[in-house]
Amino acid sequence: MELFNNKKTYDFMGKNKIIFSISAVVMAFYVYFMLVHGFKLGVDFAGGTVVQIKYDAKPNTEQIRELLKTSDFKGAEIQEFGKENEILIRFQTTNQSVTKDTGDAISKLLSSTGKFEIRRVEIIGPKVGDELRQKGMMAMLISSLGILFYLAFRFEWRFGLAALLGVIHDVAITAGAVAVIGVDFDLTVLAALLTLMGHSINDTIIIFDRIREHVKDAKVDMSGKYNFAQIINEAISRTLSRTILTVLTLFFVILTLYLFGGEIIKGFAFTMLIGTIIGAYSSIFIASPFLIWFGYDVARAKEKEAEKLKIQIEKDKMRAEFEKGTI
Q1: Of 4, 51, 266, 295, which shows the fewest CB atoms inside 10 Å?
Q2: Are 166 and 147 in contact (CB under 8 A)?
Q3: Count of C-beta atoms within a 10 Å radius of residue 42
């Protein structure tokens, strides 16, 4: 299925400086916001206790808040959780709240607020939250290094670094959107960011593979030089339909999860919705231009390819002579 004319070449690199400048401004804003305001950490990372309660009818949150103020749970936050008859209560975990049955204590305290059931109680200590946060950051660092080394081995260091910078761009903007919107940053959001890294790098590898193929068949232009920007334009244009179809397929699946998957999975789904769009955008407009700015030499690449081909021909020749018994 072709969404775009497969024979037409679109000038993606013609406006790359303007587009890159816009991305740099957006990324700088999000990074500034994250550094100054930080994330709204979920219980996974901040530590604390979360109690999910489902009422038979819409509860009086002010009454619940007043009852909590006069108990061991003062300072607790209350928010609607998906439906108007479900609420989420958050508060810092103390030694006392860990040693007692929080569910029973909440049930007794709120017994006068209506008929309800406690659907979930999660308690995570601050030390565990710190450990989860550190391991999460380590997972992202190891993933980034793995991407760099893999692409540097498969292609060359310029491709690896360009792809890594594209992934950093995707993660920074997506994480920034999570911080600005105020989505709880928990393990599901971290999982979405790691998933995004894999999805984004896959799109980038497809384009880089096509760029390498076009480099092999590239011809010099009227000036006697290789137009690398035009080579990139051709490679992206030939993979454009595939990229858009892949992104749309994933986008509609994630959108379904976001709309109908329930409140628990909304953080993951929202992060993936933003990241899917940003990932496709960066594969085209962010990662590829870095190859130009890093000084990728088409002539040198063709020489290396010719040298590899020559060595392979010599090996095949020697193997054939060996099989015939002439050597």
Answers
A1: 295
A2: no
A3: 23
- SS3 for 86? strand
Q: What is the pTM of this model?
A: 0.78
Q: What does each C-alpha distance from 256 to 199, 263, 266 come to in angstroms? A: 18, 13, 10
Q: Judging by DSSP bridges, how do beta strands 83-91 and 48-55 pair with one another?
A: antiparallel
Whether residue 3 contacts residue 240, with contact meaning beta carbons closer than 8 Å, is answered with yes
**Cα 302 to the chain's mean position, in Å?**
34
- Helix/strand/coil for 6: coil
- Residue 7 has φ and ψ, to the nearest 5°, of -95, -10
At residue 20, the 3 state secondary structure works out as helix
Whole-angstrom Cα distance, residue 279 to residue 167? 8
> CA 174 to CA 140: how far, in whole Å?
14
Length of the chain as a residue count: 327
Half-sphere exposure of 140 (CA within 13 A, CB side): 20
Structure tokens, 152: 């540097």
Amino acid of residue 289? P
Q: What is the pLDDT of residues 14-54, one digit of tens each?
A: 888 888 889 989 999 999 999 998 888 877 777 778 888 88
CB atoms within 10 A of CB 274: 21
